[in-house]
Amino acid sequence: MTPRLPLEPLMKELKALGTSEFARIIGMSRRTVIRMKKTGLTIEQADRLAIHFANVHPFCVWGWDFYADVLPEVDEPALGVAA
Hints:
The two termini are 27 Å apart. Helices cover 54% and strands 0% of the residues. The chain is mainly α. The longest helix has 12 residues, at 43-54.
């Protein structure tokens, strides 16, 4: 399954106070935004929205979660990292 990213970090980055304001900023219907909020964003959607509307790389919005589909699963105990 393709990982999905939460919409809230992008809403925060754009300083949108709610779903309606975010929909107005990105030029989509409120219903579409509610659906994106419920299902999350694909990597492609996150990339396009972050660059076009926030003028930042998606990593600045979602951090390493943006690369979750390409990063290998890491077993922290195997690395000797204390929990």
